[in-house]
Amino acid sequence: MKRLFCIPLVLGLSLVNSARADQVILDDLIVQGSTCTGFDCVNNEIFGLDSLRLKENNLRIKFEDISPAPLPGNDWQITANDSASGGANQFSIEDISAAQVPFKLIAGARSNSLLISPTGAIGLGSAAPVLNLHILKSDTPAMRLEQDASATPQTWDVAGNEANFFVRDVTSGSRLPLRIRPGARHNSLVLAGNGAIGVGTPLPQAQMHLFGSAGDTQLKVEETSGTTAARTLLEIANLGEIVSRFDAANSHWLQQIAASNYRLTTGSSSLPRLTLSDSGNLAIPGSLSQGSSRSLKQDIVPLDIGGSSAKVLNLPLFDWRYIEDVAAGRAKDSHIGPMAEDFHARFATGADPQRLAPGDVAAVALVAVKDLDRQLAEKDAQLVALLDRLDRLERHLESVERTQP
Questions:
Q1: Whether 345 and 398 share a structural domain
Q2: Residue 4, pLDDT score
Q3: Residue 355 forms part of a structural domain
Q4: For the chain, what is the mean pLDDT?
Q5: Do residues 376 and 314 both lie within one domain?
Q6: What are the start-end ranges of the E strands in 58-204?
Q7: Among 204, 233, 209, which Cα is nearest to 221's?
Q8: Can you give the pLDDT at residue 7?
Q9: pTM of the full predicted structure?
Q10: Which of 144, 146, 175 is nearest to 157 (CA)?
Q11: 312 and 387 share a domain?
Q12: How high is the pLDDT of residue 9?
């Protein structure tokens, strides 16, 4: 048994009525051994390596500071286990003055539940934290951010495992609005200091910069709703003209959208290669070609052109203006030609009776020319026959005249 040595200098000692009376030691107290405090300490206590032992059914160490204001005087208490029946087996530090428990350990917590390394790194489950905060767990280490009912309740989880790193909206049905899969490319998502977003690049050169070098860079907008409906999947808005630039190997194209027209322009020329007005007028400075190869067609049959010229000659032609042109103040934009309904009724071409295909109009003109050529050939043959007959009649008449006395 360890020996207990007390070397007190007692200036005043009072023992009143009982050996259990309080002892007041008016000097330093040095115990060169172990000390046991509590109702359940016994004679010949076996301390082992314990220097100080508290032993009874309610274990508390209280720090009661009587410093007068304005000096700090908060009272604190170290508590081991709840005193009530069925209470928690726990170790806590209590703020007695504020009636708060800022620190608590529940019995059974795993090893290294909280560890602070010599570098100040904090390990949660880790005995050797590598970074300032290191969370180690066998399955999906996570961190929860929970706003209680004193405001609007909301709970978020930030977690990671072998499948992904994710942010989970627990309150809204555990949705995962953000995921990062293992093996994601370097600089998959970068937020620059100016608010620009880089996808695949650490230095975005626009508010949104998508960059790639593996030959698979692309932007896809996909809506998978099972309900068929018209939806705006991409919207670009500007108070002025909108310009989109498309760079190819040795040139670039500009797609320009103004208030009244749509234009396509190449980098080598300021003249638009295509202009489409808001009233539907299409203008190009070059040729318009429609696909007409045999390789693009089927159900090819020879056309009977007989009587086609009569259909063309009977086709009504008009001088007219588009309603939208007049409404837009372009009253001088007049046109001549047939009505699509009349054309369709005679030749049954095109997608519907309200539209004409330039190729069909040109083809009908060719058919009419061929029909007129056929008719001219017939007339020419008749004329040749008549001229031959006239020649024979003239020769006969001359012969008759010579035989007359």
A1: yes
A2: 35
A3: yes
A4: 89
A5: yes
A6: 59-63, 76-80, 90-95, 100-106, 115-116, 122-124, 133-135, 142-147, 154-160, 165-169, 175-180, 190-191, 197-199
A7: 233
A8: 32
A9: 0.67
A10: 144
A11: yes
A12: 30
